[in-house]
Design brief:
The complex is a heterodimer of chains A (about 160) and B (about 200). By secondary structure, chain A is of the alpha+beta class. Chain A has helices at about 10-20, 45-70, 110-125, 140-155, and strands at about 5, 25-30, 35-40, 75-80, 85-90, 95-105. Chain A has a single domain (about 5-155), classed as Beta-Lactamase (2-Layer Sandwich), CATH 3.30.450.30. Chain A is built from four helices and six strands, in the order βαββαβββαα. In chain A, helix 1 runs antiparallel to helix 3. With about 200 residues, chain B is of the alpha/beta class. The radius of gyration of chain B is 16 Å and the shape is globular. The chains are: A alpha+beta (about 160), B alpha/beta (about 200). At the A-B interface, strand 1, helix 2 and helix 4 of A face strand 1, strand 2, strand 4, strand 5 and helix 5 of B.
Chain lengths: ~160, ~200
């Protein structure tokens, strides 16, 4: 089950990938580190940390690739003792994204790569064209709530 | 750009603490981390050298709670300040919704502050972000140091704040100014989400 998806069009391709590849975690994120969809995480804060690190790894690997081969590395695999990660980019009409997935002995790198190619194609098919910037959604007097919440956060309420 | 999830009514914003090396960017995040209740923050991630200088970035996710019916979260990042980490700074700055420029108030650091502020503007321009329109606040940190070592906020403002953005005196090690700075940048960033795009 997809727990978080910022945009509906991502849900079906991601659900299929998770089911087919039998991975335990999956994240689709913007290169700036913002999550677009996720599977398997239970805490929003953990998602944000994973996204920040995934974006950093991806962009570092890309720069390293440019220096070594003149073009960015677009995928990365790391095998731990129990779990493995696979990180790669996915380009669509609505932008370039980064995909991170974590899997264990229930899957394999070959399987993940196979279904990732399919996921990437499905994502590209489903992606809408870039749309206009969203219209404002916060109330004009949001400052009162912001100040109250920040005061609570800092123990000043 | 702030990420808005209309389905789950969530807003996520990326705030980058920028400034010269050793100006106190990481210290700001450490102070925030120490003050915020456990259930409202994630783990603070620090990609640092063995001597605790920021190598890639520090990262702290914060849950600001409900604002206008949206669960609002901020991702706080720092950049490495040292001049030779230019490439890393550009990467971390990518997609920022707002910037806190942390200046070092020590008189001998004035030139570093100015150069770092120019570096910020150049890096934003290279990412096709208009430096004059991105939400920005300045914190003059280390105002707790002896008077003969530091410049006043007025002197620093004259030297750095030519845009006239909101600025704050700070002592990130002990806390004064940290909250006010975060509140300042939060207000400006969220204000963009309550303003029609044509009027921004």
């Amino acid at each position: 089950m997809i727990r978080t998806s910022v945009e509906v069009w991502i849900e079906e391709p991601l659900r299929r990938f998770v089911d087919d590849a039998s991975v335990s975690l999956a994240l689709l994120l913007h290169p700036s580190g913002q999550v677009l969809a996720q599977y398997g995480f239970t805490r929003a804060m953990d998602i944000m940390s994973a996204c920040a690190l995934a974006a950093a790894i991806h962009v570092s690997a890309a720069e390293l690739g440019k220096q070594l081969e003149g073009k960015p590395f677009s995928g990365l695999h790391h095998a731990g003792k129990v779990r493995q990660i696979f990180l790669a980019d996915a380009r669509t009409a609505s932008g370039a994204y980064i995909f991170l997935t974590v899997f264990d002995e229930r899957s394999s790198l070959g399987l993940v790569r196979l279904y990732f190619d399919e996921f990437r194609a499905n994502l590209a098919k489903a992606a809408p064209l870039p749309s206009e910037a969203p219209e404002p959604m916060l109330n004009e007097n949001f400052e009162r709530e912001l100040n109250k919440n920040l005061a609570v956060l800092f123990g000043r309420a | 750009m702030s990420l808005v999830n209309y389905q789950t009514r969530e807003i996520t914003c990326k705030i980058v603490y920028y400034g010269p090396g050793r100006s106190g960017k990481t210290t700001n995040l450490h102070y925030i981390y120490s003050q915020v209740p456990h259930d409202r923050k994630g783990k603070m991630v620090s990609l640092a050298t063995q001597t605790d200088r920021t190598l890639f970035f520090d990262f702290l996710p914060l849950d600001l709670g409900m604002i206008s019916g949206f669960t609002t979260r901020f991702q706080l990042y720092t950049v490495p300040g040292q001049v030779y980490y230019q490439a890393t700074r550009k990467l971390v700055l990518q997609g920022a919704d707002g910037v806190v420029f942390v200046a070092d108030s020590q008189a001998r650091q004035l030139q570093e502050n100015i150069e770092s502020f120019q570096d910020l503007h150049q890096n934003l321009s290279e990412q096709s972000v208009d430096p004059r329109s991105i939400p920005l606040v300045i914190q003059y940190n280390k105002q707790d140091l002896p008077r003969d070592l530091i410049l006043t906020t007025t002197e620093l403002s004259d030297a750095i704040n030519f845009r006239g953005v909101p600025d704050y005196a700070g002592d990130a090690l002990h806390g004064p100014g940290v909250f006010e700075t975060l509140r300042g940048i939060s207000e400006i960033v969220l204000k963009r989400l309550s303003t029609p795009s044509s009027a921004r």
